[in-house]
Amino acid sequence: METYSISELAKQFNISTRTIRYYEEIGLLAPKRRENGRRIFSKREKIRLQLIFRGKKYGFQLDEIREMLELFQIDRTGKKQLKRTIEYGEEKIMEVNERIAELEEIRGEMEQLLVMFQKKLKELECSVR
Q1: Residue 78 to residues 6, 14, 21, 45, 66, Cα–Cα distance (Å)
Q2: Please, how many CA atoms are within 13 Å of residue 26, restricted to the half-sphere of its CB?
Q3: What is the pLDDT of residues 56-66, one digit of tens each?
């Protein structure tokens, strides 16, 4: 069985061991413990960590990620997990589209201001001559 120490996982994901401990503390990870109390992470925990970071990359909250991960434990077919992930994904796409529209509006406003400022600068430069 493939296992990892907390420092090995931290290095692989380029994160701090504190981050991994935090995910354990909030129930996203559940490593086993050795006799000496040290955490030992399975391949399952490594995959869960990958899924956590994928979820965070796409803007999911940790409680949303937890729900999606737990759904697989409830329904091993993955059907419930996929349905909920699709729902969350559709919501995130709507949020991204709204943000894109906001950013495009801001860009348009900034472009208009730059044109105004350039025109004003030319007027000022011409009046100085």
Answers
A1: 28, 29, 27, 17, 15
A2: 15
A3: 999 999 999 99
Q: Is 24 exposed, middle or buried (0-12, 13-18, 19+ CB in 10 A)?
A: middle
Using alpha carbons only, how large is the chain's radius of gyration in Å? 24
* Residues 29 and 18 sit within 8 Å (Cβ to Cβ): no
User: What is the helix (H) or strand (E) element at residue 72, kind and residue range?
Assistant: helix 62-74
- What DSSP character marks residue 30? -
Query: Per-residue pLDDT tens for 69-84?
Result: 888 888 888 899 899 9
Report which of 8, 55, 58, 59 is spatially closest to residue 28, judged by C-alpha positions. Answer: 55
